[in-house]
Amino acid sequence: MTTESENSGSLMASVLAADLAELTEELASNAIDLPAASTMVERDFRLAVRSFLALTLTVGIGSGPPVTLTLAAGPVAVHEVASAFSLRLDSDAMTRLTVTCYAGRRDVLLELANDLVSALGVGPTALDLQPGLPAHDLVPGLHGLDRFRASFESEGARRAADH
Question: Rounded to an integer, what distance in angstroms lies between the CA atom of residue 128 and that of residue 70?
């Protein structure tokens, strides 16, 4: 018999999977405002994970450097993180997205992570249940944008010179 808790867990995984699929599609179309688009995903992770601490979305376009958006209510010290998982959701060869969720309690992410893999139809190699603790405190905001812009602009200049 399925409990109410199991039903709500799989429902949240379905909602999160739909949000992540939409985010991945928007990235592939290059028509995305990453901070705005990520707000819904963060809200759903907060609802799905009782001890949610932070969420990072790392985006790479082409061969350029990645940009990481960290979503948290405030800075999260490394020692507060008890568990994490990373999920790679590459929409195509040119667009890379890695979602990492951090929680303050052990063993709260395993079921959600497996439900997401199943709902998104990605292979098990896309999931890393032990990505390790963050190397530094998690600070909310967009990180790496200057390097990303510089790479994007040089790629645009290179393409213009080729034509």
Answer: 18
- Pick from 74-78, 123-127, 139-143 the range whose average pLDDT is largest: 74-78
The residues, any chain, with a CB within 8 Å of residue 80's CB and separated by 6 or more, are 53, 104
Whole domain around residue 86: which residue ranges? Answer: 4-162
Cβ neighbours for 42, distance < 8 A, ≥ 6 positions apart: 55, 71
- CB within 8 A of 144, min separation 6: which ones? 65, 66, 67, 68
| pLDDT per position as a tens digit, 60-77 | 877 778 888 899 988 999
CA distance 3 to 15: 19
Distance CA 8, CA 14 (A): 10
Three-state SS sequence of 119-146:
HHCCCHHHEECCCCCCCCCECCEEECHH
What predicted TM-score, i.e. pTM, was given to this entire model? Answer: 0.79
Helix 110-120 crosses helix 4-28 at what angle (to 10 degrees)? 50
CA 132 to chain centre: 15
Question: What is the SS3 assignment for 85?
Answer: strand
